[in-house]
């Protein structure tokens, strides 16, 4: 006795979403620009719509999972959105999320923007840790919570439709920095015949895991405005450590280009007289 919904977009992520809803017993209407991709799902009970407009007409709840924001506008161009609950699981920027919310409101639809924090195999598998940031209409989420919780745990982060995209991108940006560090670490060891990357990996993972809680200290500094409280590793010490890191890169004959942007900013903050702080002050250096 589960409710029906429409899904537009059957790429890698859309197909994983569709499979999760079908497995959970939801009545699903699907549409994909290239029709062939929907056929495999028909065998599993999905209804295939001939056009995006027809798919939208089939259900109140309409989910889009397309390549980018422009493709959402294109796909929904001729559809009647009056009275619809539109959930956009297409990755975009905060600005695109807000503009899409205004666009949906003009067309008489409630709107929720989503940022999927998972890769397709994690969808529909609660133990994977997958979740989806949502922002925009909380009422929409509350009304369709059972359905929207099927692919991954919903996390509502605000009525501002831009917040899901903003937090999604913040997580991806943090991950980018983390993997820049991982890449540099492997490069340091790359020419050493007696150090195996596979044997080193568990040590690296354990170290990164232990260090992630440092994030709470930065958050506390930013919220309190006191960038020095409970500092165990101060900036003056860290900048000394950076010199050792850079010199080691030199000795190993590898480029330090992945780490110098951060070390340079730390030096600037130190030069401004903040040697007793942690690294929270670097956040302020980035505000343009
Ligand atoms: P794919 O490239 O596998 O699929 C893209 C989908 O968009 C296809 O269904 C494609 O249709 C459709 N599409 C592209 N352009 C248009 C258009 N102009 N009009 C209509 N449909 C169009 O991407 P994914 O499924 O992997 O990703 C979909 C969204 O999910 C993206 O925003 C992505 O960032 C997000 N996401 C993906 C993750 C992943 O790991 N895959 C992780 C988290 C988020 P067609 O078949 O006709 O080409």
Automatic annotation (TrEMBL):
Residues 6-152 form the 6-phosphogluconate dehydrogenase NADP-binding domain. Signal peptide: none annotated. InterPro entries: 6PGD_dom2 (IPR013328), 6PGDH_NADP-bd (IPR006115), HIBADH-related (IPR015815), HIBADH-related_NP60_sf (IPR051265), NAD(P)-bd_dom_sf (IPR036291), RedAm-like_C (IPR048666). Gene3D superfamilies: N-(1-d-carboxylethyl)-l-norvaline Dehydrogenase, domain 2, NAD(P)-binding Rossmann-like Domain. The keyword Oxidoreductase applies. GO terms for molecular function: oxidoreductase activity. Residues 160-286 form the NADPH-dependent reductive aminase-like C-terminal domain. It is an enzyme of class 1 (oxidoreductase). The keyword Nucleotide-binding does not apply. Its EC number is 1.1.-.-. It holds the Pfam family RedAm-like_C. Keywords: Oxidoreductase. Belongs to the HIBADH-related family. This is NAD(P)-dependent oxidoreductase. It comes from Streptosporangium jomthongense.
């Amino acid at each position: 006795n589960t409710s029906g919904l429409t899904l537009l977009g059957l790429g890698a992520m859309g197909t994983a979403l569709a499979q999760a809803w079908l497995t959970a017993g939801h009545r699903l209407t699907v549409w994909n620009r290239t029709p062939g991709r929907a056929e495999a799902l028909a065998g599993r009970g999905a209804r295939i719509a001939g056009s995006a407009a027809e798919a939208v007409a089939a259900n109140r709840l309409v989910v889009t999972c397309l390549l980018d924001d422009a493709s959402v506008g294109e796909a929904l161009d001729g559809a009647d959105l009056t009275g619809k609950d539109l959930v956009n699981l297409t990755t975009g920027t905060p600005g695109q999320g807000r503009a899409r919310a205004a666009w949906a409101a003009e067309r008489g639809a409630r709107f929720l923007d989503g940022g999927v924090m998972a890769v397709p195999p994690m969808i529909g598998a609660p133990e994977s840790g997958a979740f989806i940031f949502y922002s925009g209409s909380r009422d929409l989420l509350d009304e369709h919570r059972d359905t929207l919780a099927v692919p991954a745990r919903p996390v509502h982060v605000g009525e501002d439709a831009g917040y899901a995209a903003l937090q999604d991108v913040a997580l991806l940006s943090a991950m980018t920095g983390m993997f820049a560090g991982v890449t540099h670490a492997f490069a340091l060891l790359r020419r050493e015949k007696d150090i195996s990357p596979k044997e080193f990996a568990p040590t690296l993972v354990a170290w990164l895991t232990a260090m992630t809680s440092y994030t709470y200290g930065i958050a506390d500094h930013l919220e309190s405005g006191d960038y020095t409280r409970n500092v165990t590793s101060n900036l003056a010490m860290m900048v000394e450590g950076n010199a050792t890191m850079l010199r080691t890169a030199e000795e190993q004959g590898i480029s330090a280009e992945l780490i110098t942007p951060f070390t340079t900013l730390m030096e600037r903050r130190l030069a401004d007289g903040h040697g007793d702080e942690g690294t929270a002050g670097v956040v302020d250096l980035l505000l343009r």
